[in-house]
Give the backbone structure.
Amino acid sequence: MPKKQKEVWKQVDQFFADALIAPGDGFDAALDANRKADLPAIDVTPLQGKFLEILVRSTSARRVLEIGTLGGYSTLWLARAVPDDGVVVTLELEPRHAEIAKGNLEAAGLAKRVELRTGLAADSLAALAREGVAPFDFIFIDADKVRYPEYLQWSMKLSRPGTLIVADNVVREGKVIDPESADLNIRGVRHFTEMISAEPRLSATALQTVAGKGYDGFVIAVVLR
């Protein structure tokens, strides 16, 4: 992607963030903590975080499942959107990432709304199913793309009619359109999309996004029955 174009995306992102996210309201301290901890720079942007918050609020979600915590930046936006008696169950593979996320949640005063489970997401999802937890109202998938198809299967088992499922990083700089790609992440996203297309219980769309972090997008699906 041309460097000049990316700079425009970054400036536009900053314009809207400055206008629509009040100072001190965008969890800047968490982003700073993640940078200082040398976590991968793959957090959602502040505007995307606000987008997730608005989706959760607009659906009146009380139970949220997040697959992929990293340093908890997106978790903060989700947790702020649920009511005081709501919960965000977030799953993270790396213990170090989970510890940083816990620190960010505590610093923001939102730790009481979050249940953080560490380990393989597939194992945590299976455990949730065995425990017979109540269905989730909102599910955010933002983890290893290779396993997106598996995460979709679990999401269907842990949802109810009306549950909103949002998956991030599905455009892959436009490379998702290549059916011959050897990239396992792209193959995972393509299979995930094919599964949604073939699933009569889901109605879905996709949104392409551009920002300072690049060209990507979301798949958004609602469970019909």
